[in-house]
């Protein structure tokens, strides 16, 4: 991790923390919490999805490392994995959701923190998971039934699901998980101690504040777009041009635009089809979360195999 990315990410955490405090308080004060789900979808498609829109470039790099000459193999594998996720979600929604939330927790924890930690031990990987699980547990803690309603819309409706909810409610599972997430942030802060690593707690409290004041969808959208995705996009922009972040972002936008537009196109087709059977808000929630799952699995697999082979 370059020193430039390190400094920018530190400043980004401070800016995001102050933005979250002001934005959340203002919305709460004026009682204007019903931000359109259309706006959330737009932000996720434009800012959120774009941070993975350079996967085709990373895919070509992985193929070179594996000494595979045909680029079509990457595209076929990427699309196939996305399609398998969609089919699996339809056939086994409960299992797919659990796997997705587990992988997403690890991904969020790692991507948001690894610029501060120069360690790849198994213990650190576990800490990443528990740090990232706060993204899942915070909305459940502050808006339990609203979050559960979202899960139900994602085709999760079975006896096992309701039994799990009862177990979670009566056994303090959410509180224990948040405690573990808090302890993981403390361990990551103390590991190879530097005072600058205090930004770990800024990110932690930003997520808590977002979910305390705002609905689960709005809180997730702000986190995903303006903390997770922008942080990842900054790294990609600097990789494209280490000497000028402005030019790096210009190159990033140019290279990310085709796949971002393509993803948005298919998302709106799915939204049109789903809107024939569901309300607009329900259709949007399905497109956002099931769509993100279908993109997250191949994205994380690509990052894993690229990191492993670069070693």
Structural notes for this entry:
The protein is mostly helical and 311 residues long. It has one domain. It has 14 helices and no strands. The radius of gyration is 19 Å and the shape is globular. The two termini are 14 Å apart.
Low-confidence stretches: none
Helix vs. strand class: mainly alpha
What's the story with the biggest beta sheet? none
The tally of beta strands, per DSSP, is 0
The N- to C-terminal Cα distance equals 14 Å
* Helical coverage, percent range: over 70%
Tell me which oligomeric state these chains represent: single chain
Count of discrete alpha- or pi-helical segments spanning 4 or more residues: 14
Q: How are helices and strands ordered from N to C?
A: HHHHHHHHHHHHHH
Number of domains: 1
Rg on CA atoms, Å: 19 Å
Percent strand equals under 5%
Whole-number mean pLDDT: 86
Shape: globular
Write the SSE topology:
Blueprint: H1 3-29, H2 37-48, H3 55-65, H4 72-91, H5 93-113, H6 122-132, H7 134-142, H8 144-153, H9 159-170, H10 173-190, H11 199-213, H12 216-240, H13 245-274, H14 280-310
Helix pairs in contact: 1-11, 1-12, 2-12, 2-14, 3-14, 4-5, 4-14, 5-6, 5-14, 6-10, 7-8, 7-10, 7-11, 11-12, 12-13, 13-14
